[in-house]
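Whether sequence alone determines local backbone shape is best considered at the level of individual chains. Part of our work consisted of pairing the sequence of a single chain with a tokenised description of its backbone. This step matters because it turns folding into a mapping between discrete strings. For completeness, the protein is quoted in full, as a sequence line and a line of structure tokens:

_____
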Amino acid sequence: MQAEPGNVPAAPGRPFAARSILWPGYDAPMHDDRRRLAGTLAVLAAAACFGTLGTVSRLSYDAGLEPIAFITWRAVIGSLVMLAIVLLRHLRRRGLLFVPGVPHRQWAALLVATGAGFILNLALFFAFDRIPVALALLGFYTFPAMVAIAGVVLHGDPLGGRRLAALGLAMGGMVLVVSGQFDPAAGGAFDVFGRLLALVAAACQTTFVLIGRRGYRSVPTEHASMVVLGGGAIAYLALVVGTGSAAALTLPLGSANVLALVVFAGVVAAGIASFLFITGIRLVGPVRTGILSLFEPVVGVALAAVVLGETLRPVQIAGGVLVLAAVALLQLTPDRLTPEARPATVI
């Protein structure tokens, strides 16, 4: 098959050499400074998109939509968005409809990542039901530390003083931002299972980030995002039907406001966010991605203050400043990775 303009079919086991949707003028390999800037912006944008979920889901729940229905609608719409992008790029002869030469082990890795995303959402959903949301988020956002430790152990990624400092600043800022949401009146009974679920979600996110580095490197980012979201959508639909909750999915069809909310969640907080997140992992690697992802609760808290009228406490503002300081410090930190440990630069 003849290569289509802008793409080179991948040889088995080799990265897919594709022109970036986000950065049309940048073809792999990318200069380190440009790669770091592009990856940082991609992860921050993804974190901002994911950060809208708290407010959008709250508005949806207040309108009567059940959480499992919200998650299902989000996954279905997100997968359809990525399918539309794949088809559009194919019709414009800028992308392949089917990806040839991908080794079976890479498809298997992509399926593992899809499963991790599915379990992640379910674990957080049930954790929110058992313990205060702030406590669940404190458990979940330990995943950047898990990613950093796993990167050192599994791949020999050097952390260095600046990376450690950035990780410390970001984690400290996250604690301040999230703990500012804690309502003592909501109770904080020690629920072992609820807290364990939050840590399971963190472990799943860690798995997703680590696999996203090179686990399915021959698969273009838009195809990978489509598989992750599509697989999740199928699993959620099966769960909803299997538990007899299918009727809960009909509410958006009878309410323009709820439909607008789930469409926003699917397009922005699923399709676009997932594409940007996988792009960032491939450009800057898992450790940087994990640290930069802590921008998500900063956006979430700020948006809740603007839209929902929630109080933004000084301690949360201070936490946001610490996270932004970590981002700035990371940009000043060059990568010192071995060739084997370098992140994939093709997206």
